[in-house]
Amino acid sequence: MESEDAEDDEDKEDEAPRNKRAANRRKAGKKAKDTEDESEGDSDSKTDSEEEESMSEGELARLTEEVEEKKKLIANIRTKPWRMRRRLTVLKESQEFVDKFEGALGGKGKGRAWFAYKMMMKKKWIKFQKDFENFRTSCIPWDRKIKEVESHFGSSVASYFIFLRWMYGLNLVLFSLMFGLVVIPEVLMGLPYGSIPRKTVPRAEQPTAMDYSVLMDFNVRIGIFGYSLMVVIRTMAKNQDVGGGDDADNEFTFSWKMFTSWDYLIGNPETADNKYASVTTSFKESIVDEQENQKDENIHLRRFLRVLANFMITCILGGSGYLIFFAVSRSQEFANRDDIGWYEKNEVEIIMSLLGLVCPPLFETIAELEEYHPRIALKWQLGRIFALFLGNLYTFLFALFDEVNNKLEEEVHIKNNSVWFLKEYLANFSMYNNDSEATAPPINPADAIRGPCWETSVGLEFVKLTVSDIQVTYLTILIGDFLRAFIVRFLNYCWCWDLEAGFPSYGEFDISGNVLGLVFNQGMIWMGAFYAPGLVGINVLRLLSSMYYQCWAVMCCNVPHERVFKASKSNNFYMGLLLLILFLSLLPVVYTIMSLPPSFDCGPFSGKAKMFDVVMETIDLDLPAFIGTLFGYVANPGLIIPGVLLMVLAIYYLNSVGEAYKNATLELKKKMQMARDEEKNRRNNKKSTNQQQQDLEDLLPKRSLAPPPPPENNTEKKEEKGGRGTRVKPGAAGGVNMQKDVSLASANPNARGPVTREPAPRGPGALPGNPQERGEKGRGRGAPRQ
Amino acid sequence: MGSRASSLLREEDIEEIKKETGFSHSQITRLYSRFHSLDKGENGALSREDFQRIPELAINPLGDRIINAFFPEGEDQVNFRGFMRTLAHFRPVEDNEKNKDPDAGEPLNSRSNKLLFAFRLYDLDRDDKISRDELLQVLRMMVGVNISDEQLGSIADRTIQEADTNGDMCISFSEFIKVLEKVDVEQKMSIRFLH
Where does the EF-hand domain lie (chain B) (predicted)? Predict the structure, then answer.
C-alpha cells in the first residue's frame, strides 16, 4: 500500500485515508480488535481466544483491518472513478482475499473452522519440531563431561574426546546393523537347521531360504563398509563447510576475545569457574599464536636438524617392521610345536602393542629438534605414528596370509580324507546290505571331520589383537598416568628435588598417540568385522568404557599442556586419516572375497569356489531370468568403461566448480577489504588511494556510510596515514611496529605450576580478580545476598 | 511518571510502554509479573540487591555493570518503566517493523542501540571512549590472577591497536561498531521473550 502506484493519481487520495485508518487502527490495538470482533457479530469467542494464542496479536489485527478494508472496497467499488478493467481485477482480488481470510477471524465464512484448524496444526507442528530438536540435542551423551575437559585443557584435547564420541556412534550403528540383520535372523531360523551344525552346512543340501540369508549376510558385511565410507565422507564434507567459513577473523582476535568471550547463560558457579579457566586458556592460546608468528631464526640450521630428525625416524620405522616380521616367522615355528605357553601364543600381538607404545614418545623427543609450531608438530607426529602403525598392520596381515595359505593346503588334504572315508563307508554299507542306494552316513555333523577353517582362525587372530590392544591401552593409562601422578604427588614430600617441577612431573595428555590408536583400532575392526561379526560389539563396549575411563584419567592425572594451542578449526585431518584407513582395510578384505576360496567345512559361504559366487548364484538361480540377462549386459566392458569415464568427468567438473566458488569467495573478501580501506582513507584524508574508485565516487551522489568522523585534533597522525599506499591491515593502525610495544613473550607467572588445586571456593560477593577497592560511583556490593 | 509506585499496571501505562519499547501486550504483562517477583521489598521498584539475587548476574564478571545499566544516573531504584526500557534493548530485531513511525526515532532494539548498551558497559566514565585503563579493569575481571599484569597490559595494548583507527589510543563508539561488525549482534544480544 505504500508502494508507488504508477497508474492513477486518484488512488493516492484513497490510499492516504486508508493508511491513516490502518495506522489508527494499529495504534488503538486491543480496542480495535474488540470492536472488530463485536462487529463481526460472532459468538465464537472461544475460537477467537484460541486463535489469539496461536496467532500473534499483530497478525490478527493486521488481517482484520485488511479484511475490513477489502469488504468496504467491494461494497463501494461502483463509486470508484476507475476504469472497468481495473475495477474487475480489484473486485476479484478482494473477494478472494475476504474468502480466504475471513475464516481466520471468526466471520461467517465457510473457511473458518478449516483455517483455524490448519493454523493450529501448523503451530503445533512447529512446536513439535522444536521440542524434538531439543530432545535430540539433549540426547547427545557426555556433553558436559567434554565441556569440562575443554575448559581445563583446551580445545585440542577436547577434540580427541569429540572424535571418540563420534566413533562410538559409528560403531553403534554398525553393530546394530550387524546384529539386526544377521544375528537375529540366524538365531531365529538357525534352530530348525541347528545353528552350530548349520555352520557346517551339509554338503548335499542348501535350502532356498538359506540362500537369501546367506546373501543377506554377505550384503550386510559389504554394507558395513559402504555405510562407514558414506558417513566418513559426509562428515568430511560437512566439516569443510564449517571450516572454510571463518577464515577472516584474524583481524580482531584480541578484541573479540575481550568483548565477546563470556557466556551470559551460565548460572552455575562451577560452570562459571570452568568458563574462567577456558577464557584464560583462550587468551594464552592467542598469545602463543602471536609468538609463533613473530619468530624468525637461522634457516639453515633448522633445515639440517629437520633432515636429521627425519632420517632417524625412518630408521626406527624400518627397525620396527623388521622386528614384527621376525616375530611372525618365529610364531610360525611355534605353531608347529606343542608346548607353547601363553607368551608364545600371543607374542606377535604383544610385540605389536609394545612397539606402538614405545615408538611414539621416541618420535616426540626426536621431533623437538625440528621446532615447528605446535599445531604443525602435532600433524607431523600423527603422520609418523601413522606410518608406524601401518607398517605394523600390513606386516601382520602378510603373516596371516601365510597362515591362511597353509590352512588351505591342509584343508585340501582333509577333504581328500573325508571323501575317501565316505566312499569307504558307502562301500561297506552296500556290501553289507546289498543296497546300492547311497544315503548320508549317520554321523552327527558336529562329529564329522572338519578341516581347519581359515576364516575362523583369521577372525580369532583379529579378536586376539583387539583384546590385547585394549588391555595394553588401559594398562598404560593406569601405569603411565595414574601411577606416575600418584608417585609424584605423594613421594614429593620426601624426595630430594621437586618432583612436580622437575623430572617426572605430571603427564600431559598425548593427543596424537590416542587419536591414532583410535583410528587404527577402527581399521582393525573393519578388517576383522568381515570374519568375526561379534568384533563390532566388542568395540562398542571398548569405546564406551574408554570414554569414561579416559575422561576420568585426564581430569585426575594430567595437567594442561605447557604450550596451549588451538586445534585446527576443522576436524578434517582426523577424518582424512580415518578415510585412508578405511580404504586400506578394505583392500585385504576385498582381495579375500574375490580370490581366496572359502573354507570347505564352515562358514556361511562354504561350498563355493569364491565368496563372491553367492551373489552370482543368487542372480542366476533365484531371481527372475531377465534380471540375469540384464546384469549380463551391464557387466559388459563396453558399458562399464564409458560409465567409468563419465564418473571421472563428473569428478573433474565438480572439482572445478568447487574451485570457482572458492575463487569467488576470495574475490568478494578482497572487495570488502578494499571498501573498508576506502572508508578509512576517506574518513581520514578525504583522498582515495585508488584512482578508479575516486573517479567513481566523484560521479556518484555523496553518500557517506559511516557516521561523521570525530573532530580531529591530531592532524599529524592523519597525514601520515594519508600517505600510506595500498592494503593497510585495519588492525595495524598507524603502522605501529608489532614487535615494539607488544611484548607478549614475557614469562607466565605460573610457568610450571600445574593445576593442583581446585579453584578456591569463592566468598560471598567476591569474584576472582575483582579488585577490592571498587567503591567508585557507589557501586559497591550492598547487602549480602540471601 | 517515574515515581508513581503503583503495584497494578494500568492500560495507559501498558500503551505507553508498548509505544516506547515495542513489546507486545502479553509480553509486558508477563514481564511485569517477573518484575513483581524480583521486587522483594514490595515497593514497586527494584534495588541493586534485588538484581544481585539472580544467579546468572551474580557470577558474571560484568554483572555489576549490567545491573548498573538499569539504574539511571545517580539513582538507586528503578521502576517498571525503567526496567522495560533497559530490557527493550534485548528484544529481537524483526525485519518488518510495522510500528515504525519515522518520528519516533530509532527503536531501542536496533543494532546500533544494542551496541551502545554494550559500549556503555565498558565505558565507565561515560566519556564515549574506552581507555586502556578501562580495558585493563575488564581483563582483570575476566581472567583473574592467572595471567600476569604485564601480559594483561600487552593484551590491552594489542586490543587497542586492533580497534583504534584514529590513533587516540582509545576505542570510540564508531570504532567499537567496526570491531563488532562481523559479529551477529542482533542474534547474540537478543532474548526470546515469550509471548
Answer: 26-61, 110-145, 151-186
Which residue's C-alpha cell is 577434540? A159
Does A764 contact chain B (CB < 8 Å)? no
Per-position b or e across A131-146, b if 16+ CB within 10 A of its CB:
eeeeeeeeeeebeebb
In angstroms, what CA-CA distances link A56 with A49, A51, A52, A53, A63? 11, 8, 6, 7, 11
- Beta bridge partners, B171, equal B130
Report yes or no for ipTM above 0.85. Answer: no
Q: Distance from first CA to last CA of chain B, Å, rounded?
A: 26
Put simply, the answer to whether A260 touches B144 (Cβ < 8 Å) is no
Q: What is the DSSP secondary-structure string of A525-556?
A: HHHHHTT-THHHHHHHHHHHHHHHHHHHHHHH
Tens digits of per-residue pLDDT, A526-541?
A: 877 777 777 888 889 9
User: Chain A contacts of B142, Cβ < 8 Å?
Assistant: 258, 261-262, 276, 279, 769
Closest residue in A to B143 (Cα–Cα): A280
Cell numbers linked to A176: 546394530
Summarised one tens digit per residue, pLDDT across range B17-59 is 888 888 888 888 888 888 888 888 888 888 888 888 887 788 8
* A134 and A68 Cβ atoms separated by less than 8 Å: no
Smallest CA-to-CA distance from A469 within A321, A353, A327, A347 is with: A353
What three-state secondary structure class fits A508?
strand
Q: Which of A30, A262, A733 sits opposite B62 (nearest CB)?
A: A262
Looking at chain A, the whole-number percentage of residues with pLDDT higher than 90 is 4
CB contact under 8 A, A731 and B162: yes
Q: Is the dihedral of CA A69, A71, A76, A80 positive or negative?
A: positive
The residue among A522, A521, A512, A506 whose CA lies nearest residue A567 is A512
Helices A30-40 and A57-76, axial angle in degrees (round to 10) = 50
Q: Mean pLDDT, to the nearest integer, of A73-87?
A: 84
Residue A116 pLDDT > 80, yes or no?
yes
Question: Is A134 an 8 Å CB contact of chain B?
Answer: no
Q: How far apart are the first and last CA of chain A?
A: 56
Residue A218: all three cell numbers together: 554377505
Q: Do B161 and A56 touch (CB under 8 A)?
A: no
Test the B interface: residue of A264, A721, A757, A758 with most B CBs within 10 Å:
A264
Mutate to test the interface with A, among B17, B101, B132, B151 (most CBs of A within 10 A): B151
Range list of H helices, A368-453: 374-433
Secondary element (H or E) of residue A232 = helix A208-245
* Chain A residues lying within 8 Å of B157, measured CB to CB: 741-742
Q: What angle do CA B93, B24, A112 make, to 5 degrees?
A: 105
How far apart CA A707 and CA A724 sit, in angstroms, is 23
Residue type, A692: Q
Pairing of strands A507-508, A558-559: parallel
Rounded to the nearest 10 degrees, the angle between the axes of helix A534-557 and helix A155-178 is 160
What pLDDT band is residue A652 in, cutting at 50, 70 and 90?
very high
Residue of chain A nearest B112, judged by CA positions: A707
CB A288 within 8 A of CB A563: yes
